[in-house]
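Annex B. Sample input.
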Amino acid sequence: MTCYDRRDLGLLLLRLGTGGVLAAHGAQKLFGWFGGHGLEGTGQFMESVGYAPGKASATAAGLAEAGGGTLLALGLATPAAGAAAAGAMAGASAVHVPNGFFAMSGGYEHAASLGLAAAGLAITGPGRLSLDHALGHTVDRGWMVPVALGTTAAVTAVVVGMRNKRLRRQEEGEQEALFEE
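Annex B, continued. Sample output.
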């Protein structure tokens, strides 16, 4: 008989809470559920904050959040799920950084907390109360952790870097337009 310990119960609660919040945010983006704006509205917002094309960016963020969150909650493919969610939250944090840390001021606190929790789960693993454990960790191998996190970090750095470059060009264009007037 398997005896679950405090660590397994704690990881289950952390996975359910973090994964549930991420999945709900992803569903807002993808389907407009829970007061969200769906792909069209989220795509327009993504475009307005420098992520282009907006609809593709909304789809990628929504899938990373909804898919990564659902998989985290289930404890399935935990390295990939945690990495995907952490990458999406890094992209969200980049949008909120100019507003400071605290969420009440529009800061990156919430996104960073979710991203760090997801990355921590990717590294720690899901515990024994998970589908990964029930399936013999076939999609939760040790080598998958650095591969998933490294790949996600590289892709996220490129995407956020392109966004920042796009915003700088836009700002320079606006300044040039002011000088021409």
